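Fresh eyes needed here. Kindly weigh in on this sequence plus structure tokens:
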Amino acid sequence: MSRRHVLAVMGAAVLAGAAGCAGVDATAPGDGAAYAGGDRTVFVVSRGWHTGVVFPASALGPGHLPEAAAFPDARYLEAGWGDRTYYPDPDAGWGDALRAALVPSPAVLELIGHAEAPRAGLDHRVWSVPVTVDGLARLVAAVDDTVARPPGGGAAETVPTTLPRSRFHPAHGRFHMLNTCNTWVARMLAAAGVPIDPDGISRAEDLAEALARVPGARARG
């Protein structure tokens, strides 16, 4: 069983016992009845328990995500958010997973560069989500605001990892079972104007159900 499946099993059990608890701070969702999408597309990638958001690298504005310089040839950038100890460590075990779920802890932002738009595979699902030009800019700004940088500015420090394709950086926020990577992705989409409410979204399944109600969002093969 992979470490992400370990956390999924543990998280499901913990969340079941936490039903009725207060939700996370939420960005106000857009008006679903009025939402008409847009001519730009972002993607949500789900790998078991974890989800990330993918957007065109060309959408980066001046000064946004200087950390993306690590991927000079990328046409798309994937961003994910998670526990600072567990998330970058591919060898993390049950104890780390339990601590990450139960104890609010510092966070990291993961960046991955892609040569092309993501497509579904054996171990992951992908949704395409339409956004406007302004919505895409707001999403990129929200991802950028997630990174915890030094007071003097410049790119954030890197957090050690043995995952070869990823770069991790300190991030704002505290990870716990009611404020997960899936909550964060929903928050980024809400910042773009997508009619999705991050409040109550903790599991990848919660996010998938919310995406199914977004006009124009599609599962991508």
The mean pLDDT is 84. Residues 3-16+37-219 form one domain.
